Amino acid sequence: MLTQDEIKQLVAKQAAQLVQNNMTVGIGTGSTVYWLIMELGSRVKQGLFFRAIPTSKKTATLCAQQNIPLAALNDVTALDITIDGADEIDPNLQLIKGGGGALLQEKMVAAASRELFILADETKLVRQLGKFPLPLEVIPFGWKQVQRHIQATYNVKASLRTKDDQPFVSDHGHYILDCPFNKIEHPGILTYDLNAIPGVVDNGLFINMADMVLVGYADGRTETLQNNTAES
Ligand SMILES: O=C(CO)[C@H](O)[C@H](O)COP(=O)(O)O
């Protein structure tokens, strides 16, 4: 049986084969994507040339260490593909992302891509989104107002994400509120409602964005799930 980390390596290795010469590729953030970057680094050593648009400072640093050429989102008109991880994936391939705090840049890069390809180990598949606390990226000014709004509207206790006993600060200088909705009945509606709250920059729901999910299982199998439904 494979460990979770070995499953991440397995799917990352397969996904790295999607990258072809001269492509512009969005590179996600997280422990699964770490293995993707390592694999792409080896392919670059063997002569592959592509441009990476990183979704976080962490990913940019890892790509640079692997000699993967980087470009900024503003330097390109469109990306061929973005490969990223996810925190939860429902049967319609709706996602919760942002466990690593990079949701804003991840969503912008994914939105500019012709295809969003998600890598996951089987623990990320859920029947309904919401067990994983939904990250809300908020501006630090008046963040407690947003927290109160979430409590009053949804009866959900949003907690300020911290790191070393200090508020976690995103690459863009924002805070993150983690919101344990538990069950999200209508993610497509919730994403609009949340983003309409003053002070919210974005939320971790990725609705109708993923085209494919490559899932790895502990027994070494992998499976590709395709997006064939629209969100209710
Ligand atoms: O959204 C993300 C970062 O903001 C990651 O893709 C998500 O948290 C999954 O991470 P991992 O591959 O480490 O399980």
TrEMBL record:
<comment type="function">
    <text>Catalyzes the reversible conversion of ribose-5-phosphate to ribulose 5-phosphate.</text>
</comment>
<feature type="binding site">
    <location>
        <begin position="84"/>
        <end position="87"/>
    </location>
    <ligand>
        <name>substrate</name>
    </ligand>
</feature>
<comment type="pathway">
    <text>Carbohydrate degradation; pentose phosphate pathway; D-ribose 5-phosphate from D-ribulose 5-phosphate (non-oxidative stage): step 1/1.</text>
</comment>
<feature type="binding site">
    <location>
        <begin position="29"/>
        <end position="32"/>
    </location>
    <ligand>
        <name>substrate</name>
    </ligand>
</feature>
<dbReference type="InterPro" id="IPR020672">
    <property type="entry name" value="Ribose5P_isomerase_typA_subgr"/>
</dbReference>
<dbReference type="InterPro" id="IPR037171">
    <property type="entry name" value="NagB/RpiA_transferase-like"/>
</dbReference>
<dbReference type="Pfam" id="PF06026">
    <property type="entry name" value="Rib_5-P_isom_A"/>
</dbReference>
<protein>
    <recommendedName>
        <fullName>Ribose-5-phosphate isomerase A</fullName>
        <ecNumber>5.3.1.6</ecNumber>
    </recommendedName>
</protein>
<feature type="active site" description="Proton acceptor">
    <location>
        <position position="106"/>
    </location>
</feature>
<keyword id="KW-0413">Isomerase</keyword>
<feature type="binding site">
    <location>
        <position position="124"/>
    </location>
    <ligand>
        <name>substrate</name>
    </ligand>
</feature>
<dbReference type="GO" id="GO:0006014">
    <property type="term" value="P:D-ribose metabolic process"/>
</dbReference>
<feature type="binding site">
    <location>
        <begin position="97"/>
        <end position="100"/>
    </location>
    <ligand>
        <name>substrate</name>
    </ligand>
</feature>
<dbReference type="GO" id="GO:0005829">
    <property type="term" value="C:cytosol"/>
</dbReference>
<comment type="subunit">
    <text>Homodimer.</text>
</comment>
<dbReference type="GO" id="GO:0009052">
    <property type="term" value="P:pentose-phosphate shunt, non-oxidative branch"/>
</dbReference>
<comment type="similarity">
    <text>Belongs to the ribose 5-phosphate isomerase family.</text>
</comment>
<dbReference type="GO" id="GO:0004751">
    <property type="term" value="F:ribose-5-phosphate isomerase activity"/>
</dbReference>
<dbReference type="InterPro" id="IPR004788">
    <property type="entry name" value="Ribose5P_isomerase_type_A"/>
</dbReference>
